[in-house]
Amino acid sequence: MTMRRQIRPARIGTRRQFLLYVGAAAALPASARIAIAQNYPARPVRVIVGFAPGGPTDVFARLMAQKLGENLGGQFYVDNITGGTGNIATGQAAKATPEATRFTSLSAPMS
């Protein structure tokens, strides 16, 4: 004979806890609207490429910057910093201030 486990509804607790949960659930959509309303990017975004202009990494970064600019409505520009197999460009991106609007486009060797 198998015994069936009886499933009981989850207990919320007191009325105060219930009202707290309902209020928190009602506030979630409002907080999502606030997060969406922020404008990004507020300043031009610098895309740092660690390789010479005209290469595959540069072409990819330029296409990506163009699409990001179209979709986000901001200005994205590509800055080629050659040397050190991308280490110099990565170092400049790492030393950027936290509020700076820049990122690095890198590639890895395929061997």
Structural summary, described in words:
By secondary structure, the protein is of the alpha/beta class. Helix content is 42%, strand content 13%. It has a domain at 45-105: D-Maltodextrin-Binding Protein, domain 2. It is built from 3 helices and 3 strands. It has a 3-stranded parallel sheet, with helices on both faces. The longest helix has 22 residues, at 15-36. The chain is elongated, with a radius of gyration of 25 Å. The model has no long low-confidence stretch (mean pLDDT 78).
Q: In angstroms, what is the radius of gyration?
A: 25 Å
- In angstroms, what separates the terminal alpha carbons? 63 Å
Count of helices? Answer: 3
Low-confidence stretches: none
User: What portion of residues belong to β-strands?
Assistant: 5-15%
Chain-averaged pLDDT = 78
CA-based shape: elongated
State the CATH class of one domain. Alpha Beta
**Main pleated-sheet profile:** 3 strands, parallel
What is the CATH superfamily classification of one domain?
Bordetella uptake gene, domain 1
Extended strand count: 3
- Give the helix proportion (percent range): 40-55%
Q: Tell me the series of helices and strands, N- to C-terminal.
A: HEHEHE
Decide which structural class fits the backbone: alpha/beta
Order of strands across the main sheet: 2-1-3
Output the CATH topology of one domain.
D-Maltodextrin-Binding Protein, domain 2
CATH architecture of one domain: 3-Layer(aba) Sandwich
